[in-house]
């Protein structure tokens, strides 16, 4: 199983993709617990429910996000595509010196589009 930080990052990414597919109460509970870092008691008071009710809402939201991802696999495809594009960038950077100045400029612009934070 993933470490807690990796799991939290994954769930936040899944929420960004699939959050609108959760119920309104699931979204609120998830946001308050996982993003705003409120306690179950604080959320229960805000939503007018019990701590157990909040726990169940958050758990159902997490399970739903994982279930949707297992069916649609957008996050997995995005992660795979990002790894492949980064590897392509790594392979192409050494070849830039062999290009003409206009070709090099175009290649650098394309590489920047693939990974704006990466070096060219």
Summarize the structure.
The chain has 120 residues and is mostly helical. It contains 6 helices and no strands. Helices cover 75% and strands 0% of the residues.
Helix content bin: over 70%
Summarize the biggest pleated sheet: none
Low-confidence stretches: none
Shape: elongated
Number of E-type strands: 0
Helix/strand structural class? mainly alpha
End-to-end CA span: 35 Å
- Which fold name corresponds to the CATH topology of the largest domain? Arc Repressor Mutant, subunit A
Number of helices: 6
CATH superfamily of the largest domain: Winged helix-like DNA-binding domain superfamily/Winged helix DNA-binding domain
In CATH, the architecture of the largest domain is Orthogonal Bundle
Measured by DSSP, the beta-strand proportion falls in under 5%
Radius of gyration: 21 Å
Oligomer: single chain
Structural description of this entry:
Helix 1 crosses helix 4 (51-72) and helix 3 crosses helix 4. The relative contact order is 0.09. With 120 residues, the chain is an all-alpha fold. The chain has 2 domains: 4-72, Orthogonal Bundle (Arc Repressor Mutant, subunit A), CATH 1.10.10; 79-114. It is 75% helix and 0% strand.
Characteristics:
6 helices; 2 domains; 120 residues
Topology:
Layout: H1 4-18, H2 24-35, H3 40-47, H4 51-72, H5 74-92, H6 101-114
Helix pairs in contact: 1-4, 2-4, 3-4
